[in-house]
């Protein structure tokens, strides 16, 4: 029986199916027609909840940023009585776990070509909330609000997630649990947060961020986590 646009739970069903399609084949696999087919509704029913395919993507990305913000917040709160290294690792594991459990959404969360930022203010708010957690984490990890600290930490964790999802097949072993375990071992390794010999001296000798970098960092961006 075909579901109507007013069917209870249809919006949530559409988002769930869309997330599954992203996991299966990326953005190219997501179409309103395929979503309708899998949801068992008319081809017009999804438009009752979303104006377009972009609307579905924006909703998924918004939910993704909210979930990521929650995961990081909970990790920071749960490890607040530990050392900065342990807190940073806990947040790193939370970020990595989110990415590996939500690969389809994670891959598009940081692609502003997937949506018009001016049309989705809730998405921007959600991305900024997640960004604030990363900013706080960098301050805990490095004891600094230097924007380069945040960028460095973020690049490590995010880059690790991308390498595990889309990198060389041999990275960390076979696909699946073995590779995921390797990724979490990278977070636990001394290379993640303990630095390299002489790192403290290097940080003392590092020149401060330029006024231009600080101005860019403080500027209100229109792009998610951009």
Describe what is shown at a glance:
The chain has 226 residues and is an all-alpha fold.
Walk me through the structure.
The chain is an all-alpha fold. Helix content is 65%, strand content 0%. It is built from eleven helices and no strands. It has helices at 10-25, 32-39, 53-78, 84-101, 103-109, 121-142, 147-166, 177-188, 190-193, 199-205, 211-218. Helix 1 crosses helix 2 and helix 4 crosses helix 7 (147-166). It starts with 9 loop residues before the first helix and ends in an 8-residue tail after the last helix. 28% of the residues are buried.
| Tally of DSSP β-strands | 0
Strand content: under 5%
Uncertain runs: 205-224
Q: Count up the helices.
A: 11
- Structural Rg: 20 Å
Mean pLDDT: 84
Indicate the percent of residues in helices: 55-70%
What's the structural blueprint in terms of helices and strands?
Layout: H1 10-25, H2 32-39, H3 53-78, H4 84-101, H5 103-109, H6 121-142, H7 147-166, H8 177-188, H9 190-193, H10 199-205, H11 211-218
